[in-house]
Amino acid sequence: MEKPFPLFRLPRLAIEEVISTMSPFEIINLSKTSLKIKYVIKCFLRTSRNSQFDLQLIMNKEPKVSLRGSEKMYFELKITSDKTKNGMRIYKECLYNEKFDTLWIYSENLIDEWMNLVKTVIEIFKFEKQIVIFHIDKFPTRNKAIVDFIKSQTPSIECCEFQGKTETDEDVEYFLNNINITNGLSMTVKLSDHFNFPQFNHLNSCSLDPANWLTFNQFIQFKGSHLCIHGSPFTSYELNQFLILWMTSQCHQNLRFLIININDPQSLVTIFNLPFEIINPNVERIGRVSQNDTITLRGGIDIKRIDGVTGTIHFKWRGDKMLLLMMVF
Q1: pLDDT tens across 245-270, in order?
Q2: What would the 3-class secondary structure string for the chain be?
Q3: Same domain, 264 and 329
Q4: Most buried of 7, 92, 111, 307, CB within 10 angstroms?
């Protein structure tokens, strides 16, 4: 039998060189062997420039912790109740050069095992961004406990995505009232018409689908720059009032990109009961949308804000629904 390699008898620089060659999976397993090893690993990772990741906490059927490194490389740890998957590891490459290295860990108690894994990962790694993807109807009896746990680990996160088909106003409100989201929010979750949205000021981007609960007064409180609103109950008159408020600098001063549904395409004359200019369709403009992506627009309808900023409006279809697209230049 070979003797184990005495890693911690090496000089510190040599130890750090060994750690730098390890994958996150190996680092996590090594950190569990002793408190001394965990301390050395944590000190090294906290000072290393090449060990920064984005953290994704994903509540799905198999709760997941994902570390996104450089060059679109994802290291995923999934907690599974299937014994046959324990220790299974799969590597795959996808579109846009994204690469996924996935490892499964078996546990009879998925949520508790996931929480222990999250604690370990947050303790030893350094993260630039923290993102939560919450499938709200996968563990309905544990939703509030999950929110309390996330709050205990980090009081704020950069982005959050809610998904689900069960009407769960209370759980979504509990999350939004307890965890501050500093940048982006996506909600593809069923909510009642009486849902109360508690966060407006900190969101740079927001995507709501459906937005059946969104009132006009709530909408004009958004401070973000990128908004995608589908299924709102707004009338053409309310869309007209929004554009007038924007033109008079009374709302949405940071807006750069907007998509919002039009419920009555026959009443566009109501929406544009304001000063505007129709642009030659040969005029091409390039606007910037979220995540530094760009979009090319030809022609359109220009409206002017009192400070001289231009908003260019186009129309598009999503199935049988007409959308108003506005790009601010």
Answers
A1: 999 999 999 999 999 999 999 999 99
A2: CCCCCCHHHCCHHHHHHHHHCCCHHHHHHHHCCCHHHHHHHHHHHHHCCCCEEEEEEEECCCCEEEEECHHHEEEEEEEECCHHHCCCEEEEECHHHCEEEEEEEECCCHHHHHHHHHHHHHHHCEEEEEEEEEECCCCHHHHHHHHHHHHHHCCEEEEEEEEECCCCHHHHHHHHHHCEEEEEEEEEECCCCCCCCCCCCCCCEEEECCCCCCCHHHHCCCCCCEEEECCCCCCHHHHHHHHHHHHCCCCCCCCCEEEEEECCHHHHHHHCCCCCEEEEEEEEEEEECHHHCEEEEEEEEEEECCCCCEEEEEEEEECCEEEEEEEEC
A3: yes
A4: 111
